[in-house]
Amino acid sequence: MTDFTFSSTDFNATTILVVANTADAKDYLAQRYGVGCISIEVRKSSAPDFADSFEFQGLSYS
Questions:
Q1: Are 19 and 5 in contact (CB under 8 A)?
Q2: Phi, psi of 38 (to 5 degrees)
Q3: What residues contact residue 5 under an 8 Å CB cut-off, 6+ apart?
Q4: Which residues, at least 6 apart from 25, have a Cβ–Cβ distance to it below 8 Å?
Q5: Could you give the CA distance from residue 20 to residue 37 in angstroms, rounded to a whole number?
Q6: Does 62 reside within a domain?
Q7: Is residue 8 part of a domain?
Q8: In angstroms, rounded to a whole number, what is the distance separating the alpha carbons of residues 26 and 37?
Q9: Per-residue pLDDT tens for 21-33?
Q10: What is the pTM of this model?
Q11: What is the reported pLDDT for 11?
Q12: CA 27, CA 33: separation in Å to the nearest integer?
């Protein structure tokens, strides 16, 4: 299982949803965005930056 899932509801959407799938991923989001955070909505253009930060932390994504 990957730590994070990137999903888009529509091809033309300008944002994507990043969902934490594991305890490590949830801990990472909680540290960055606050306790209880399990998903974030981000601009598609910023997805590569998030992917890089996940890889730097040793987390996986799909």
A1: yes
A2: -120, -5
A3: 18, 19, 21, 61, 62
A4: 3, 4, 59
A5: 9
A6: no
A7: yes
A8: 7
A9: 999 999 999 999 9
A10: 0.87
A11: 85
A12: 10
| Contact call for residues 50 and 42 (beta carbons, < 8 A) | yes
| Domains held by the chain: number | 1
Phi, psi (rounded to 5 degrees) for 6: -100, 125
Give the span between the Cα atoms of 45 and 12, in whole angstroms. Answer: 13
Residue with tokens 């930056």: 49
In angstroms, the CA 49 to CA 51 distance is 5
> Side chain identity at 58, as an amino acid letter?
G
Q: Where are the beta strands (DSSP E) in the chain?
A: 4-7, 15-20, 39-43
The domain in which residue 27 lies consists of: 4-56
Domain for residue 61, yes or no?
no
